[in-house]
Amino acid sequence: MKTFVSRFKRVGRRVGTGLGLLKPRDVDLYPGSNVGDRVHLRGVVLGGNNSISHDTSITGKVAIGYASTIGHNCVLVGEITIGRYCQVAPYAAAYATNHSTSCLSTYVNKRLFNRELQRHNRIKPVEVGSDVWIGHGAVILPGVTIGNGAVIGASSVVTKPVPAFAIAVGNPARVVGWRFPKEIIALVQELAWWEYGPEELRKIKEVFFLDFVNDVPGTCEVLSKAIVTLKKPC
Hints:
Blueprint: H1 2-10, E1 14-15, E2 20-21, E3 34-35, E4 40-46, E5 51-52, E6 57-64, E7 69-70, E8 75-77, E9 80-82, E10 87-88, E11 93-95, E12 97-98, E13 122-123, E14 126-128, E15 133-134, E16 139-140, E17 145-146, E18 151-152, E19 157-158, E20 166-169, E21 174-178, H2 182-191, H3 198-201, H4 216-231
Parallel strand pairs: 1-3, 2-4, 3-5, 4-6, 5-7, 6-8, 6-9, 7-10, 8-11, 9-14, 10-15, 11-16, 14-17, 15-18, 16-19, 18-20
Antiparallel strand pairs: 12-13, 20-21
Helix pairs in contact: 2-4
């Protein structure tokens, strides 16, 4: 393990103590990312410049996009895709697998039949778009998709799809509002700023400091110009 940790540090990464890399080759999958103490990773692919805070467990076919961050004490299990520039608050969880309730038992631990009962697990991938904020203690259940720019309130339990730029709260979570007016949402989706790196985004830095709600006409104008700036050939 010391050898793997040294390799991490040599390429500009931070690795916390007690890191649980279940496969040595996994260490090559985390370029430029910070991994906290007592983090448990297995089969995870990071897009780069990520942060995984302490005491978090991520296992399964999980892909986390560029610059997305995962708070402490989070759990991600199964086939999960998280887009770019997302933030997941502490104690949040996402599950792409669930126990079967139609068999004799829901028990699938290795202590009974050496995990053979896991073949009954119900597997449904979870997909999270880019620029998504998932609040403290929220739970995302199997088969859920969350659109770009959505917000999931603290302690919410998400059982159904959440549209782009929607604000969803509660148990079960329901859409209670939208971040922006429809015309703004359409322009932001077209801009798709999350597809670009920090250096490119400096060209449209002013857009990130606008009030998208109280000055809709002005915002639309600036967004339209930003789209041209980002999309034009170099």
